[in-house]
Amino acid sequence: GIGGASQYGLQISIINSPAEYIQSFIRETWLQRYGSSPSEDMITLMWSFVVSIYSIGGLLGSLSAGYLSVRFGRKKAMLFANIPALLSAALMGLSRLCGSFEMLIAGRLFSGVCGGLGLNIHLMYAGECAPRKLRGLTAITASTAIALGKFAGFALGLREVLGVDDLWPVLMAASAIPALIQLLTLPFFPDSPRYLLIDKKDKEACI
């Protein structure tokens, strides 16, 4: 769940804290680039893109989760989900340094792809790996991971932690931490028995 459903919860809650700072960043960038202050409507529009493009990325990730989980297996598909997560963290973390609010929008799109992939494949992978007696309990871990991700996003967004003007790019790049943890730990996990038997026709590996 660390790199699966928790990424979804993290990105849902993490965007609330730096809203004021990001809107100021859009205003400053626009002024430096075009020599005039943007209207409040334009700032609201750009901010709306930053927030809502996550859902578009989530849709793209969800639509591709089925294909990737069958083509490469549940475990490899979960590992692939970390690529957009790390790309998103890099884009959002460097957006202020590069003076580009477009990088923020692109980063949110990629984080949505990661969330859509992770949430769907996590449920599949955990359910198929769990023993029959623990299948229901294991499926609930997706909800637990979402809640923990939301809590982590809320905690990191506090003013005493990263919720200040100087550190909001670091806050937005926080999704790299669960992605790196999963990249280091998931290769040691087994693949889904159902995938090995039905998709790969490898009975021995399944057993």
UniProtKB/TrEMBL annotation:
<dbReference type="Pfam" id="PF00083">
    <property type="entry name" value="Sugar_tr"/>
</dbReference>
<feature type="domain" description="Major facilitator superfamily (MFS) profile">
    <location>
        <begin position="1"/>
        <end position="207"/>
    </location>
</feature>
<dbReference type="InterPro" id="IPR005829">
    <property type="entry name" value="Sugar_transporter_CS"/>
</dbReference>
<dbReference type="InterPro" id="IPR045263">
    <property type="entry name" value="GLUT"/>
</dbReference>
<dbReference type="InterPro" id="IPR020846">
    <property type="entry name" value="MFS_dom"/>
</dbReference>
<keyword id="KW-0812">Transmembrane</keyword>
<dbReference type="InterPro" id="IPR036259">
    <property type="entry name" value="MFS_trans_sf"/>
</dbReference>
<dbReference type="InterPro" id="IPR005828">
    <property type="entry name" value="MFS_sugar_transport-like"/>
</dbReference>
<feature type="transmembrane region" description="Helical">
    <location>
        <begin position="137"/>
        <end position="158"/>
    </location>
</feature>
<dbReference type="GO" id="GO:0070837">
    <property type="term" value="P:dehydroascorbic acid transport"/>
</dbReference>
<protein>
    <submittedName>
        <fullName>GTR11 protein</fullName>
    </submittedName>
</protein>
<dbReference type="GO" id="GO:0046323">
    <property type="term" value="P:D-glucose import"/>
</dbReference>
<keyword id="KW-0472">Membrane</keyword>
<feature type="transmembrane region" description="Helical">
    <location>
        <begin position="170"/>
        <end position="189"/>
    </location>
</feature>
<dbReference type="GO" id="GO:0055056">
    <property type="term" value="F:D-glucose transmembrane transporter activity"/>
</dbReference>
<feature type="transmembrane region" description="Helical">
    <location>
        <begin position="45"/>
        <end position="70"/>
    </location>
</feature>
<dbReference type="GO" id="GO:0005886">
    <property type="term" value="C:plasma membrane"/>
</dbReference>
<feature type="transmembrane region" description="Helical">
    <location>
        <begin position="77"/>
        <end position="97"/>
    </location>
</feature>
<feature type="transmembrane region" description="Helical">
    <location>
        <begin position="103"/>
        <end position="125"/>
    </location>
</feature>
<keyword id="KW-1133">Transmembrane helix</keyword>
